[in-house]
Amino acid sequence: MENITGKYALVTGGGRGLGKATALALAAEGVNVAITGRNVENLKRTVEEIKEFGVKSAYSVFDIGNFQEVSPAIEKLKTSLGEIDILINNAGIASFGSVEEMDPAIWTQIIRTNILGTYYVTKAVLPQLLKKNQGDIINVSSTAGINGSASSSAYSASKFAVIGFSDSLMREVRKNNIRVCTLTPSTIASDMSKDLQLTDGNPETVLQPEDFAELIIANLKLPRRAMLKSASLWSTNP
Ligand SMILES: NC(=O)c1ccc[n+]([C@@H]2O[C@H](COP(=O)([O-])OP(=O)(O)OC[C@H]3O[C@@H](n4cnc5c(N)ncnc54)[C@H](OP(=O)(O)O)[C@@H]3O)[C@@H](O)[C@H]2O)c1
Question: 63 CB under 6 A from ligand 1?
Fold first, then answer.
């Protein structure tokens, strides 16, 4: 098994939801964790929780959909926390509506955040992994990135694109000992899924952010010769 204790991870959208659960699970394994997002209060609170595990932590506030903000923020984190070994491209947004009715500004924002944001953060972090000739990148797509639905054109387009980006990146950097994994989870209880009324979040039946985090930890602990290329996390309840 790969020993991840003492490594450095960056989790985008780490102040709440799936990203926060992942950041805390990494910290529990002894990983130093940087988190990013736009809500400074959530980020500050989460950094305090991460530090309770005795690891180093830092946060950075920037819009992943704006490369002018992403690039200097990643450079600053490198100085304040350390060089990244593990990148979790988790931050994302969702909104549903027909092509006919959805405001083009919202459609564009979903694409900018989910696919350009994933690309921008990867572009900024990748040199650190290439320099070490080792690393892990986990890109969060969705079941909506595998199948479209009548009201998900923007979200599905963005998440299909994440799969295409992630698969290509994997083929580009596997030779550099960098593992790239694409996750396509089904509905998990979070602000996103509850706000969109996709689920009531009942922990008896609905996937929880901690389940998602466990999958990520198990993936990272695979021996370095092995790489999980993609995984779909589903609930046992149809
Ligand atoms: N929950 C599900 O059922 C589900 C299923 C499949 C895939 N996913 C994917 O899993 C990921 C996490 O989702 P979640 O359910 O945890 O959602 P969430 O609770 O709504 O959290 C979204 C996170 O993304 C961050 N974020 C959003 N836009 C951003 C931007 N422009 N710049 C920087 N950070 C931004 C938010 O940070 P701030 O709050 O600080 O802005 C927040 O931390 C997303 O990519 C989502 O598409 C979720």
Answer: yes
Asked if residue 22 has its Cβ within 6 Å of ligand 1, the reply is no
Characterize the bridge pairing of strands 57-61 and 86-89. Answer: unpaired
**Cβ of 191 less than 6 Å from ligand 1:** yes
- Regarding pTM above 0.90, the answer is yes
Alpha-carbon distance of 119 to 65, in angstroms, equals 9
Active site residue 8: no
What CATH superfamily classification does 8-231 receive? NAD(P)-binding Rossmann-like Domain (3.40.50.720)
Query: 3-class SS at 59?
Result: strand
pLDDT digits (tens, 9 = 90+) for 145-157: 999 999 999 999 9
Domain boundaries, the chain: 8-231
Residue in 13, 3, 6 with CA at minimum distance from that of residue 63: 13
Question: How far, in Å, CA of 41 to CA of 48, rounded?
Answer: 11
Q: Atom 23 in ligand 1: which residue has the minimum CA distance?
A: 13
In tens, the pLDDT along 106-153 reads 999 999 999 999 999 999 999 999 999 999 999 999 999 999 999 999
Picking from 168, 167, 145, the residue whose alpha carbon sits closest to that of residue 156 is 145
Q: Which of 11, 18, 66 for mutating ligand 1's site (highest number of atoms within 8 Å of CB)?
A: 18
Among 11, 8, 1, 6, CA closest to 139: 11
- Atom 17 of ligand 1: nearest residue by CA position: 192
The owner of tokens 């490594």 is 7
